Amino acid sequence: MQIRFTKMQGAGNDFVVLDETQGRLGLTPAHYRFLADRHFGVGADQILTVRPSPAEGIDFEYVIHNADGGEVEQCGNGARCFARYVRDKGLTTKDTIRVQTLAGVIAPQLTPDGRVTVDMGRPEFDAARVPFDAAGLAPVAQGLGQKWPLALAGSAQDAPVMVAVVSMGNPHAVQLVQDVDTAPVAQTGPLIESHPRFPRRVNAGYLQIVDRGHVRLRVFERGAGETLACGTGACAAVAAGIRLGLLDARVDVQTRGGLLTIAWSGQEADSVFMTGPATLVFDGQIELPDTP
Ligand SMILES: N[C@H](CCC[C@H](N)C(=O)O)C(=O)O
Question: Could you name the active-site residues (predicted)?
Answer without folding.
Answer: 75, 75 (proton donor), 230 (proton acceptor)
